[in-house]
Structures are given as C-alpha cells and as structure tokens.
Amino acid sequence: MYTPEEIDYEIENASIIPENVRAPLVVALSYLPKNIVDFVIESCVFISLDKDCGGMYMGINDFRLKDKRSIIILPETLWFKNKKAIAFTVAHEVAHAYKKHGFKSFKDMDPVLNKRREKDADKQAIRWLRPHFTGSFKRYTYKDWQLS
User: Fold this and answer.
1) Chain centroid to CA 2: how far?
2) Is 117 helix (H, G, I), strand (E, B) or coil?
C-alpha cells in the first residue's frame, strides 16, 4: 500500500485541486489497493475547484492530461464531509474509471445501463474500502430514485 505522502507526490502534477483538499484526497486514495492506486497514478486526473474559482480553461493537450484516460471531477462540498463519505465518493468515481464506465454515444446514456453502472461502482468501492471502515456504506450508495 502507498502512504498518503507517496500518493500526493505522484499525483501532484496531475491534479487540479485546491491545496487544502489534497490531504483528504490522498488519504482517501491510500485506502485503495496498491494496483488501483497504480491505475489512478497512471490514468486519472482529479479536478475539484473551490467556490472562489471563477472558472478555468484547460486545453486537451494540457500537460496534466497527457497520457491520462480519465478525468474525475469532485464537488467542492465533498471535502466538508466525514472521512468515510470522502473515501466512498473517491473510490466510487475511481471504480467508474477503472471499469471504463464512460459514455461512447447518446445510446450509452440508457437509464437501465446507467443504473447498473452506478450499482457496480458502489459495490466495487465497498469491496475496496471494507477492510478500512466498519459499519454500513448504505447511506453513501446511489438510491434508485437518484438513477431514474
């Protein structure tokens, strides 16, 4: 397993997040299995803009996107939640990237397929995090009414 410090070093130039939220992000990533963190380092860019950010432009050839396959956008409000909620949300979004749950066309946006992908990402996140947290993850998983 990686330490949060090692993960921070690896993703420093491949993330666009305020300095104050890097610590909770790398702690959340440190709960994931080593091979998944390797995937994140190799393939993912994280974006989370704070409320004071007026906007941001990033071209497709931006150095932070070079050789990356997934962009994970996390809401600024996430960082005010508890450690378990942050870890679950990060793991859930990493699961989408790891399982290649992207949309290739408008046909891919089928509600039934989307519901299956969300449930699949929930289950994968729970499998990764179960060794580190006690109790249920139910309050963090997607509900059917959110997927209609």
Assistant:
1) 17
2) helix
Per-10-residue mean pLDDT of the chain, 148 residues long, equals 93 85 95 97 88 71 74 91 96 96 72 87 97 93 66
Letter for the amino acid at 64?
A: R
Instruction: Find the Cα–Cα–Cα–Cα dihedral 105, 113, 29, 129, rounded to 10°.
Output: -170
Element (H, E) at 83: helix 83-98
Please name the residue that has the structure tokens 């979004």: 93
Nearest to 116 by CA among 144, 85, 86, 137: 144
Going across the sheet that includes 44-47, the strands are 15-16, 44-47, 70-73
Instruction: Classify residue 86 by burial, with Cβ atoms within 10 Å: 0-12, 13-18, 19+.
Output: buried
Domain map (residue ranges) of the chain: 4-147
The angle subtended at Cα 122 by Cα 124 and Cα 112, nearest 5°, is: 115
pLDDT value at residue 19: 85
CA-based radius of gyration for the chain: 15
- Predicted pLDDT of residue 12: 85
